[in-house]
Amino acid sequence: MADKNNEESVSGIEQRVGTLETELAESRRSEAIKDSIIHEYRQALSDAQFKIAILNGQLKLATQPTE
Questions:
Q1: What is the mean pLDDT of residues 5-26?
Q2: How open is the CA angle 62-65-67, to the nearest 5 degrees?
């Protein structure tokens, strides 16, 4: 009887380990996607900031005070 309970316990642990491994794999995929999106957002923000800097420079040149 003790062996049967032990086998069921081991089986339950193995099943839980399998479930946790699956959850970990899904979490890692999700994390990789999140990191990719953050990188894309940062690049877009950097590009936008560069364009704004150029436009600000052009605006300053266009609105120079006349003497």
A1: 91
A2: 135
